[in-house]
Amino acid sequence: MNTYKLSQRQLDFFEDNGYLVVEHIISPQEVTQYKAIYDDFLSGKIDVGGNRSDLGEDLGESKTVENITQIMWPSKFLPELLEMVYHQRVLAVSKALMGDDMEMDFDMLINKAPGTNTITPWHQDEAYWMNMPDKRSVSCWLSLDHATEENGCMWFVPGSNNGKVRSHRFASKEGGALVCDASEEEGVAVPLLPGSCTFHHGRTLHYSRGNSSSHQRRAFIINLRPKAMIQLERKLGYDHGKESGSKRKLDNEEFK
Ligand SMILES: O=C(O)CCC(=O)C(=O)O
User: Which of 48, 57, 132, 218 is most buried by its number of CB atoms within 10 A?
Assistant: First the structure.
């Protein structure tokens, strides 16, 4: 799929709210295929070295298992992912949302294992990144499981894409997660069926509850931005942990 048609209603919804649900971006058969790949990453069969970390370090109770598993750049370790349906369709939807110059900046896996019960703190993705002159950026959050409030579906603050970036700080002493002041009262929960996804703007405030269920909550995330901005990031030495792995960093001085 090279092109994807979004209705004016969908485009307006994204513009006004900062997120959009796209149902069944991959089929049930494709979900099965992606789950098998995902589990090879989780089990360590596909070794990602320092690109794996605990995003929930110090936020959850466990000191021995990851509270939130984050794997940066799965496509670096399994390049065929780039040619598979998910990456291709996300690229097409992103172009429809933000223009033909959109390209993948990075991809990542974020899993909440059963019972880990660790929130992803409220944040805006822009606070994690360099301040770019062109602010267009979009993340696709694909759920391979049935994402519910109980296991950590995404919550968004509608319209926050059109506001400012709030002041962010580290959410804990050691971990890399950032947090800003926000609450569920401002937000809406967005449960998803397996194979469905949300697209959210880099400025949209979001968060997820912990996984208190007995099942995995596997999310496969792709972030895209204009080609020229990716070139600028790389020129400035910023690759979203592709080579340097995950490390604690507040990249955007502006939002401290
Ligand atoms: O999966 C999560 O809990 C958080 C994901 C997230 O923050 C993102 O995709 O930007």
Answer: 218
Q: Locate 152 and state its tokens.
A: 């950590």
CA distance 21 to 195: 11
Q: Ligand 1 atom closest to Cα of 152?
A: 3
CATH number of the domain where residue 221 is located: 2.60.120.620
Mutate to test the pocket of ligand 1, among 70, 120, 168 (most ligand atoms within 8 A of CB): 120
Number of compact structural domains in the chain: 1
Q: What is the CB < 6 Å shell around ligand 1?
A: 110, 120, 125, 139, 141, 152, 206, 208, 219, 221
Q: Is 255:164 a contact under the CB 8 Å cutoff?
A: no
Q: For residue 29, how far is its CA from the centre of ligand 1 (angstroms)?
A: 24
Residue 3 inside a domain? The answer is no
Q: Identify the band that residue 92 occupies on the pLDDT scale cut at 50, 70 and 90.
A: very high
CA distance 255 to 93: 29
Q: What SS3 class is residue 240?
A: coil
Q: What is the pLDDT of residue 141?
A: 98
Range of the domain at 104: 8-236
Can you give the pLDDT at residue 1?
A: 58
| Token pair listed for 181 | 């002041």
Query: Could you report the per-residue pLDDT of 4-32, keeping only the tens digit for each?
Result: 899 999 999 999 999 999 999 999 999 99
The edge-to-edge listing of strands for the beta sheet with 154-156 is 120-123, 206-208, 154-156, 188-190
Report the atom number in ligand 1 closest to the C-alpha of 206: 7
Mutational pocket test of ligand 1: of 139, 199, 220, the residue with most ligand atoms within 8 Å of the beta carbon: 139
For residue 241, being part of any structural domain is answered with no
Mean pLDDT computed over every residue of the chain: 93
Residue 3's pLDDT is: 81
pLDDT in tens, 164-217: 999 999 998 877 889 999 999 999 999 999 999 999 999 999 999 999 999 999
